[in-house]
Design goal:
mainly alpha, 158 residues, single chain, 5% strand, two-stranded antiparallel ribbon
């Protein structure tokens, strides 16, 4: 089985005590960050459970939030970044199910690093973004991931 075909995501973990939960309010996310997180979760869900067709919801959410043209640009820029990160990782990316009423308002440690990397990229703080990218890519090659985050940041700024 090649690396690309291996799914490196998970809907839940058995040992929730190992999870570091934070609420969206604690991280002071802007509206765009919250939408990007939800879109990312739908993409993760589509990798973890193909029958969920989460990618359709990701595209629909992006189009609804940003309009049909800009929404597609943002969704595909995000998907490119997530694919680069997924290919670099060896361990599971822990995320919350966007359909779950109880946990969708909480952010996992993996999601926090993803949002932080994006926020730092949007602010032009590449060194700080690289720290989060290194954690997300688990010390593996992260150049393509950083480049895709820049593309996503540019798409969000349009």
């Amino acid at each position: 089985m090649n690396r690309r075909s291996m799914v490196r995501t998970a809907l839940t973990m058995k040992h929730k005590s190992m999870m570091q939960w934070q609420s969206k309010e604690q991280l002071q996310l802007d509206d765009n960050d919250q939408v990007v997180l939800e879109i990312a979760r739908y993409f993760f869900m589509s990798w973890a459970a193909r029958q969920s067709r989460g990618w359709e919801e990701a595209l629909a959410k992006s189009n609804a939030a940003f309009g049909p043209i800009r929404g597609q640009s943002i969704a595909f820029a995000l998907l490119d970044a997530l694919i680069q990160m997924r290919d670099a990782r060896k361990n599971l990316f822990v995320f919350n199910n966007p359909r779950c009423e109880k946990y969708r308002t909480h952010i996992t440690h993996c999601e926090r690093h993803l949002l932080s990397a994006l926020q730092q990229t949007k602010r032009g703080r590449q060194s700080a973004a690289c720290v989060d990218a290194m954690i997300l890519c688990e010390g593996n090659e992260m150049t393509a991931f950083i480049e895709r985050l820049r593309d996503l940041s540019a798409a969000l700024e349009q």
